[in-house]
């Protein structure tokens, strides 16, 4: 009897509860058309719904109270409304507006803030959302999922690297911070690892010549890392993760109002990896050990008439080493145990000041001081570099002409202890540049640009360019760019393969500047479907021709790296394709592919350049399940075979790399206020370059070549304990040597 009473009482309470709950229904549209598969969520609850094919939704069993209802669809601006559920069902409708990333503001292509679709120069933009899909401790690794861009490791021991764009070597790529060319020379090799991702607002990439605006280093393209403005940054943020290999990365920062007219953004990054691992059993560290800290400050000052004034500074210190597993600092610089140890100390200052005059004139300036104390086995490399840069830019519109006129001055000081630098290299380069964008009609415009530099070592340098833009519809744009480039080579600062290993460095002649000629055709198409799906297609074809190219020659003599001006020419040509798709219900995907041919022709013979892949591919897939606040990200890349530097005909290592791929998966939960928890697995396929090779580092058991015999001509003689006639060489590297690993992290943001 008692059980029966309890049953009826429970049933009565259920009926009573049902009578006190209500439903929320409505319709979601965009441009008065139904928007299916849209997520509708009641904030602070687990209740929600997805619109049907007619854009309609219903949420049932909602108790009385006040709620915030959020409607979101990838590619559209999220909309929130407050509703009150009292004594009846609620009906509410939503009209969503498209949030087109292609209309975001960019500055890199023309040195002016313009809409990405209006720029005559194609510029790719990658936001913080892109960086979060595959968390990395630095921007160098983050770029591995950008189509046509490849972070290239240049040494198996010290793991230094550079950025390749469209198959061109790292020195052809100019890397800037907030538009200032301060990442060059020594920091081209090491500086990229010290830029914390949490301070980045977006990354803008130009593929192709940009020398007419940015100078000689922007021959193959440029990467502009734009840091957050203090007013747009959260009040406090923190982001940290650890991996199964023992890596730890922490970013923290805050912004603060200083007085009535100043806002400061402070950020710090710390990265540590101190767990030597030797999975390929060659007694050398698979990954370089690192202890790194970077501190950043950025000030914005409010001025009359909204004139700009910002000032930023960064200090970076890193201690990294790689080598034999038993190495420790007591062996540094000796010939008993091999290790490559690098101490880097660097500071930077950069600013932008708009002059207090009627015309729009800005003064931009930067200064960097880089000190490197390093040893490669028992070979010391001590180098200092100081770069000062300043430029005035006058932005002026006259009828249909949008003019940009500027003058710049660059000071470069470099000194090291190598025989190539008998005296410190000190040069000051003045420059003039002018750019005119002529808007003939709303559909057509042409940009004409020219830069003049005077280098006391090489005389007058002219680098013109032209860019034509045709926009037949609001959803189509065609851009044709052509230009020239000019680059003065700083050999040891750009290519540390000349210092690592035992290959002899031979500089056969006084190196002349390189010159290049480039043409690029780009077509971009946007496509919107009535069911809310959105697609973007972006295709480019390019051709670059180099004279006086300076490329390391590993082929003439396998025991040497020979540097001279190519007696002929080299070319880079190819086609790339990108597609971005928004499918609805929190699903977004992107796919990119590049096919390229990079070769050099000398004495009538054409050969494929070393360490340039035939094809690359990148992809990302994201799915957010709004009711559970979970987001799944799957990212990856694939690289085609590339020719590798062997040590001779007897070298048993593969002449060409296999087709290889790095793939990652991540799950993020953002259901907490201000917090995100994320975790996943990197390198799912557990791919490393040693797969299919007998070894990666040649003669790792004899790094000082104590048991290598040479003939009278300096060639290695095969012996019983050296049957392949090898010397110690860690330059056979084309990808990261770090296998599968799990990671977990936590983000906190207080707006």
Automatic annotation (TrEMBL):
Where does the record place the TonB-dependent receptor-like beta-barrel domain?
268-684
Alphabetical keyword list: Cell outer membrane, Membrane, Receptor, Signal, TonB box, Transmembrane, Transmembrane beta strand, Transport
SUPFAM superfamilies from the xrefs?
Carboxypeptidase regulatory domain-like, Porins
Q: Which InterPro entries match?
A: Beta-barrel_TonB, Beta-barrel_TonB_sf, CarboxyPept-like_regulatory, Plug_dom, Plug_dom_sf, TonB-dep_rcpt-like
| Residues forming coiled coils | none
Keyword Nucleotide-binding appears in the UniProt entry: no
**Residues annotated as domain TonB-dependent receptor plug:** 117-221
- Give its localization: Cell outer membrane
Question: Can the keyword Glycosyltransferase be found in this entry's annotation?
Answer: no
The signal peptide stretch is 1-17
Name the source's superkingdom.
Answer: Bacteria
Predominant location of this chain?
Answer: membrane
* Membrane topology annotation: Multi-pass membrane protein
Which family does the entry's similarity section mention? Belongs to the TonB-dependent receptor family.
**Protein name (database record):** TonB-dependent receptor
> Which source organism?
Winogradskyella poriferorum
